[in-house]
Amino acid sequence: MGLPSAHAAARYCKRKSSNMAPPWIVGLVWLICSSITQCESAKETNAVPNKSCNHRKSCQGITYDIREAVCCEDQLHSGQGLSCCGRQPYNPAAATCCQVGRGSTLSANITWGASETVSACCGLEAFNPLNQMCCDSAIVPKPVPMAQCCGKRAFDKEKQMCCGPKRNKMVLTRMSNNHQCCFHEQFDYRTQCCCKIGDGLKIQPKKSTCCEKESAHANDQLNKILRPSNVVTETVPDTQYCDKDSIDKDTHLCCGPVQNKKVLPRKSIHHKCCGQEQYDSKTECCCGNDTLQINPINSICCANELGVRPQIPIPQPKCTEPHTRLCGSSCYNPHELQCCESTTRHFNSGGCDATPTVYDPITQVCCEGCLSKKEPWIHQFHSSPGQHCCGTETYQPHHEICCDGHRHPKGEHSHCCGIHAYNINDLHMKCCAGTLYNLTSPGSNGNDAQCCGSILQKNQDVCCSGVEQEVRYSKESGHRCCGHLYYKTSLWSCCAERLSPLHQPGQAIMNNESRYQVSVNNLNTKDLCKEMNIGTVESVSLHSVVLREVLKIHAVDGSVKALASPYILRTPGRCNKPKLIPGRTYFFDEAHVFPGFIHDPPPSLHFIFSKCRHF
Q: From which residue to which does the signal peptide run (predicted)?
């Protein structure tokens, strides 16, 4: 279904008969109208947008909120958490985009049901590199954790051999560690050799004439390489292999995972690999929890990766001209220009200079550095001193609720879910990590709907929960969760959310799923409103967890009791112990430690008490 044009949407914004339009148009036009209203005047006055305005972009003249829509090749698509895969929108938490370039043409394909956080691409198809591998553009299951490719097949290099020319490979069962390949056969190099006889290769006894000639030829080649004159006069490039290609590591880089290497021309001696890309190690770093990304070296991600935030001094110019001052990194004359957030511009009727008289409060509003025009048909509260901002607009806290820069009418049970407000007692609504869902079939109890991160989980899905994230997978036999990873039990062993290759010498099989399974957000109202504890982890050992500042809460009667510190939580076994981070706050009882709401305990407590008040 097509989207309304920018002009049609603008006209629709000014009409009051929106209740006659189809629901999808009302929702989209609300998105467009609110975006246009909040940042329109800032665009007209070239104001420097602050964090609220940074959520606004334009698609074919339509201003939209990037948290509510995405623009793919000039087409606007509504929906939270979306990205573009060519022309198509998709949610990286629930699907993976794979792109392949052929000349000037870029092909893109979406693999649904495979979260991008745990997937890799094999051509245009996504796969799980934990249990599968990409061999010659074919996705094949791993026979062992450290399998390698042999043509389009995967093999166990400890028990098998990959023999034959590049386009005609064959997997052979290895007879011993002393055996090597001879075309599609194998020989014991201690007693045999592989001889070239005619146009083919044959296995011969080591004392045969053929083997002796091969040995003599090999010695001649070795002597030529070791001859001093050759060492002096010949320059041997510093080579290494990238998969099957030989490269000079001074001029090229070999980047990517073991099964998907890529040769890149090295831009400079300071460039290093980051996945299948390269970055300048002087100004950038490669970091990320599950997906590697290139970031500026002074970013928070790089600071965490390097352990210290690099301080890159920025030379500050001196303003030598009369009546000039410094604005950011440049000089300006305050009699001719004004400085707004380190950027100079010509005088307007309003602005965001350091003085409080830069903008006109009668006709304009300045919230979080974003300047907006006062619209009489929008209910704004400009007149009261000490006004409160909600994103780029003002709002009245007693009658409205502010959700991440968006204001909504306030109800008795209103809570925020991302930028939306909803009634937490409405069984048709479900909030999943900031994404709000309208449940069309809530069943006997709307709380039966389960979240997996920001995605609504289906019955045939499995949700694997770890310390930092939850990932949804399609259910498969012989697979279990280890933290947020979904592993094949015949390949891996899981202990305390750490995977190890199975069947190593002296290794016991430990495929225990931890108690770190159920998110607080997925508890039904009955379980949510039972007694539970909240506390901060102080230390973790093999058989217990020490918590401090522990509170016992019972949301039904609103009771809160402080428990003695330290609080010792016993864990039944080393491998059943959840991965907990000291300093983090968790909800728990004697049977489970819940991963939900670990970052914002006060809002979480408020949610639980509000939810259980009338239970």
A: 1-41
